[in-house]
Amino acid sequence: MPVPILLAGAGIAAAGILSSYFSSKKKRSIAPGQGGLHHSVEVTLPDWARKELPSYYAKTYETDEDMMELAIYLSAKNVAENTGGPFGTAIFERNIEDNTAKLVSIGVNRVVALGNSTLHGETVAIQMAQAKLNSFTMQLECLPCDGEVSSKKMRQFELFTSCEPCAMCLGATMWSGVSRIVCGATKNDAEAIGFDEGPVFDESYEHLRKAGIDVKKSVLQAKAAKVLEEYGKVGVMY
């Protein structure tokens, strides 16, 4: 029997952002269903992220560096607030007319905080974005002013991650429907402090490119790697 996932995020009604549930409790118990089986999983952002979201959404982003700055900030803040690991992700929608971008969703690593090995920064951001868009994919056609679907142009969603994805997140990125992935720190940076990123190779990224996903690496790499380095001195590796 499939297990439904309850997505929880933060929203701004005026901007059409998903309204969701945030818990201030650090740990929650989920009541077992019939037969002792859990029947729901909560995917939540930390309280500090909820409080800061309005400022993220209000901004118009113009460069890759602007967008990567947010992903790196999220990774560092997540460590400072003790709400997860040193990885942050932000998904933006590109305005194809003027090449600017607006934030769609954010994600931070919530593995230890929520006891769920799949809640990496990328997977959290992808789930939040798809819940907001009410779509299992971000491969969506543009909607012109008259509201009719155009088959000529596709909306452009781009995933910015503070570190190159692990094997799981690279796969999730491919199936998410984003048109571009931009990375900060490298796989070597993450593995240097003890993380195991799994079977990720140059061929893995080539597969993304063949699938139509543009790949850009090492944007603000030194700054992103510094967050990992600091976490490596005191953090839990998993």
Structural account:
- The chain is α/β, with parallel strands linked by helices.
- The protein is 35% helix and 15% strand.
- It has helices at 47-58, 64-80, 111-114, 121-133, 167-176, 187-192, 202-210, 221-232; strands at 6-7, 42-43, 88-94, 101-108, 156-163, 180-185, 214-216.
- The strands form 2 sheets. Strands 4-3-5-6-7 form a 5-stranded mixed beta sheet, sandwiched between helices. It has a two-stranded parallel sheet with strand order 1-2.
- A hairpin with a 6-residue loop joins strand 3 (88-94) and strand 4.
- Helix 2 packs parallel to helix 8 (221-232) and helix 4 (121-133) runs parallel beside helix 5.
- The chain is globular.
- The two termini are 29 Å apart.
- The relative contact order is 0.14.
- Mean pLDDT is 85; it is low at 1-32.
Dominant shape = globular
Q: Distance between termini?
A: 29 Å
Q: Which class best fits the helix and strand makeup? A: alpha/beta
Summarize the helix and strand pattern as letters.
EEHHEEHHEHEHHEH
Lateral strand order in the biggest sheet? 4-3-5-6-7
Q: Please provide the count of β strands.
A: 7
Biggest sheet, open or closed, and with what strands and sense? 5 strands, mixed
In round numbers, the mean pLDDT is: 85
Given the structure, what is the number of helices? 8
β-strand amount: 15-25%
Work out the helicity level.
25-40%
Unreliable spans are 1-32
Radius of gyration: 18 Å
